[in-house]
Fold:
Amino acid sequence: MEKSMPLEYTPEFEARVQAWVEAQLKPKRIPHVRGVVETADWMAQLYVPHQRMRARLAAWIHDAAKKLPDEELIRLAELHHLPLSEGEKMVPMLLHGAVGYLLAAQEFGLDDPQLQTACAYHTTGDPTMNALDMIVYVADLIEPTRDFPGVDALRTAAQVSLEGVTLMATDFTLRYLIERDKYIDPRPVHLHNRLVQAGVTYRRN
Structure:
């Protein structure tokens, strides 16, 4: 077990987290979250096996605040002194990962920066992402209940290169937002640039 892994990160602790998270969710979201957990699990086994339990916990927690209204997300973020970007003020739903971690931290006494960033970055990505962050970010997009053109190519890419599929997922999301004239947070753009500058690529069909 990874030396920094808290002792309470056991299957029993995970079961407690699961029960709490599922009580926070709308019933229709539960299959998605379970799918993210299982996808994050196999991706962690492939890329960072010592982080497997942390990946599962982050996947459980990532949408814990998803059903909260915008004003409540802003209120909780300000209450916990989270710095708010202009994008988060415009689109408060971007905060749901960060706020979900805060709620879980309060419930379970968590103090884990790795869990925190994995939850916070799962929607927009971030140029500072590490492997665990990338796993939760990608798993959220490719879990088994997702059904959209291109998802199978993303799932295949996820078995080949973690950074490659992260770039592919980021580009997919950027195209999706551009085609629909949606607001684009700067973070996925910076993530794309960081990966490209590092020489990351992926096979385009």
